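Posting this for the archive.
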Amino acid sequence: MLMYVIAIEDLVRSPILRSQVIELLKSMAVRMPEPYGSLELLSLYPLANFWRFRHGIKALKEELEPYSITVRVVPLFLLTRFFYLNWWALLVYAIQAFAVALWIGLRLRPKLLHCRSYPAALVGLWVKSLFGRPFVFDTRALYPEEGATLEEGAKHSRLSEWSFVIWKKIEQRLFAAAEKTTVVSQPSVPIVARYFPRPLDDLVVVPTCTRVEPRDRLAAWRSEMRGVLDIQDRLVVAYVASWFDPKPALSLFQLFRDVHVSEDWFFLLLVSRTARGGGGGLQQEVEAALAQEPWLSGRFYVTSVEQRQVARYLAAADLGALPVGRPSRAAKDPRYAHAAATRISIKFAEYLACGLPVVCSHHAGAAADITREQGIGIVYDEVSLESMREWLNHWLENRSAISERCWQLARERFSFEAVGARYLELYQSIVSHH
């Protein structure tokens, strides 16, 4: 049995887990080689959520049952607002994670554990130490650096300096014990390599993922949604927002105005939400920020969209916007620079999957690197206004070819099928040696 382990994250309500775990596991399950046996999803879930969303847990189990994926949820005595675990919360969590590791090793006995995030990897570390079961350490991000410097999104807790040091020591043990360690972007490799205690062959890049719909379906959605939104003759810039920083976003929108390429710019802002609702407060915040700019009057539409509906709306757009700022408090902290350089947002993959070239900030990390290297957009804050104008004119003259290039890159690198195949290849290399 192969076990996929997540910890602390919201199994039921998180759009990220829906796209990056649940939908990915469905794709992998239909291609799972026979020798692996069954596939199980294990969630260490905060107790408050375990009780509040018990019906959602039941629904998820029923959803995954046809894919032969077993869902196991273990309640944790931990407040739901803590994603970055300071030393005292880490102690509370570690005691419970150790008990879960004992249960896994004694009762479930998986062939392999795939541990998503640093907290989940603690479970894999103990199962490996006590029972010799191999595990994959799926870092997702530089958790200690991000936790010490992050000032954005819904992850409000931050790591104290002492807690940062503790997590860096734990990180060394995780790197040493895991059969393979995965990172989501190529820029992560040289940063992690400085303190990675194993051969670099054990450090593997597996990117974020998204569903890549067929081109004919995207074309049908485009026609449908441009009619619904009454934007048939507009040049539409889409921005997916799980959180919103008005300063870089408004600066980018104003740039489209200032290049004088077209008077038909329209901005479509999709505020993510859970299947149970939510997102209304963020939607109001975004609308209020845009309403302060008179020139944007009649040029934007903000709506709260479930994860599964995002692609349908994005298909109506022409470009994807990725404006990212740099928080002043962390601007000079090298830890923030390292975390920022490695990130690659889900919205970036979603834009490409819908054939949208990306207009991004150089603070967008790995997304900016790929945009430059692959010729699928422009890093707008690295070029002059004239260069921006030239690129937009080039794009207008070659829209179909550039859109096809974006979609092909998404299918080859970021699709569920491509990422799932990468993980299955990784599992095979590990299991064959045990």
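The chain has a mean pLDDT of 90. The chain is about 50% helix and 15% strand.
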